[in-house]
Amino acid sequence: MNKYLRLFRFGNCLMGAIGVLIACFIAAGFDLGDHAIKVIIGCVLVICFEAGGNALNDYVDYEIDMTAHPDRPIPCGEISRKTAQICGIAGLAVAVILSFLISFETVPLVILCAILMFAYETVLKQRGFVGNLTIAVLTGLIFLFGGSIIGDYSQVWTLALLATLVSIGREIAKDIEDVESDEGSRKTLPMIIGRKKAATLAAAFFVIGPILSFIPLLDNTFGILYCSVIVADIIFIYCATIVFKDAHKAEKLAKVAMFAALISFVLGVI
Questions:
Q1: What are the DSSP calls for 121-189, one per residue?
Q2: How many alpha carbons fall within 13 Å on the CB side of residue 162?
Q3: Burial environment of residue 1 by CB neighbours within 10 A (0 to 12, 13 to 18, 19 or more)
Q4: Is 69 left (phi over 0), alpha (psi -120 to 50) or beta?
Q5: How far is it, in rounded angstroms, from Cα 10 to Cα 87?
Q6: What is the pLDDT of residues 134-188, one digit of tens each?
C-alpha cells in the first residue's frame, strides 16, 4: 500500500466518512438526496480530518512505533517526521476550509474538532482521563456534524450524547486493560484511583447510555423499528457487569453495542 495511505490509515478514514453519511441519513431521512453536495463535502472533510489526526499521531508516537508498529512509514524510514507533521496540520486545516463550503453553522464545530484533535495528539493523550473525555467528545461530535450538514439536530442529538457517554466507559475500560503497558508513559484514571473504582465509573457510563436511548421512544422521534435498540442496551448493560473482571471483553463488546445502536437509529428513520 502507498506510504501516505498507510500514514493516513485510509481505511479508518473511509469508515469515518461512512459514519458521517449514516449520521446525515439519520438527520435527513429519505430527503438525504436534497443535501447531496453538502454530504459529499462533509465526507471528504472527515477523510481529510482523520488523515490529519492519524498523521499527527505517527509524528508524536514515533518512538513508541519503533517497537510497537515498526511497519509504519516513519519507523520504516519511508516518511520523515517533519513530513508527517506537515501532513497532519494540513489535513486539519483543509477540513476547516471545507467546512466553509457546507454552512457557517458547521464552521465552529469543525474548528472545535480540529483544536481537540490537535490537543489530544500533542498533549492530552498523555493526561489519562482528560484524553478519554476528548476522544469521547470527538466521537459524539461526528453525529452532531451530520446534523449540522443537514441543518437539523433533532434526530441526532440523542445518538451523539449516547455515543459520547459510552465512549467514556469504553476508553476507561481500555485504560484498565493497558495499566501495565501504560506505566511510565501515561497517567491514566485506573493508575490514579485504582482499577476497581475505574471499573465502577466505566460501568456507570455503560448504563447511562441505555437510559438515554429511551428518550426517542418517549417522544416518538423514530418509528417502531427503533425498538431494536433494546439489543444494544442489553449488550451495554452486560459490559457494565463484566468490566470488573474482563475489561478487554467489555471494551470490545461496547463497540458491538455501539454499532447495534447505530443500526437501530437508522432503522428508526426508515
A1: HHTGGGGTHHHHHHHHHHHHHHHHHHHHHHT--TTTHHHHHHHHHHHHHHHHHHHHHTHHHHTTT---H
A2: 29
A3: exposed
A4: beta
A5: 13
A6: 999 999 999 999 999 999 998 899 999 999 999 999 999 988 887 776 676 677 8
- Mind giving me the DSSP string for 200-250? HHHHHHHHHHHHHTTHHHHTT-S-GGGGGHHHHHHHHHHHHHHTTT-HHHH
Contact assessment for residue 51 and residue 57, using Cβ atoms and an 8 Å cutoff: no
Q: pLDDT tens across 48-80, in order?
A: 999 999 999 899 888 777 877 788 899 888 899
Contact between 258 and 166 under an 8 Å Cβ cutoff? The reply is yes
For 139-157, b/e burial (b = at least 16 CB within 10 A) is: bbbbbbbbbbbbebbebbb
Question: Which among 162, 187, 177, 182 is positioned nearest to 268, based on CA atoms?
Answer: 162
pTM higher than 0.85: yes
CB 63 within 8 A of CB 116: no
H or E stretch including 25? helix 10-28
Domains and CATH numbers, the chain: 1-152 (1.10.357.140), 156-270 (1.20.120.1780)
DSSP state of 104: T
d(CA 205, CA 169): 5
